[in-house]
Amino acid sequence: MSLNILTAAHYLCDKSGWTLSNLKLQKLLYFAQMVALGEFNEEIVRDDFQAWALGPVNADLYHEVKIYGSAPVGSLPTGNDAPSGIRRHLLDQTLRSMGAMSVGELILISHWTKGAWTKHYVSGKKTE
Predict the structure, then answer these.
(1) Domain total for the chain?
(2) Which residues of 37-57 are buried (b: 16+ CB within 10 A; e: fewer)?
(3) How far apart are CA 112 and CA 39, in angstroms?
(4) What is the C-alpha separation between 105 and 98, in angstroms, rounded?
(5) 94 in a structural domain
(6) Position 124 pLDDT exceeds 80
(7) Residue 15 falls inside a structural domain
(8) Nearest-CA neighbor of 26 among 94, 127, 124?
(9) Is the model's pLDDT at 89 over the cut of 90?
(10) What is the pLDDT of residues 26-48, one digit of tens each?
């Protein structure tokens, strides 16, 4: 069963020692979701991402943590559906493999010319 975006975000923030900014958290969750869909045809989170100017964003998560600006997210609500199995493994793997990358590097990856963001982003379109 896929997770609520806030549950997955809380898990990543906690695993990182609460060092992830909103932007970095968004990118890591998106990449984990893409791997889960591509390799296992399963979602990690049941919530959608939108194509915003700086890459894929989940609007609900954005509004929950925008108060932190570019600083690390300080807290998030927790849910009852903690990550387990392949979802937990993919979140852990994403944090291990991409967690040390800069936000700029993650944005460049998300803006890959043949990727989903590029296919869906419309410059100047307000998505909030």
Answers:
(1) 1
(2) eeeeeebbbebebbbbeebbb
(3) 19
(4) 9
(5) yes
(6) no
(7) yes
(8) 94
(9) yes
(10) 999 999 999 999 999 999 999 99
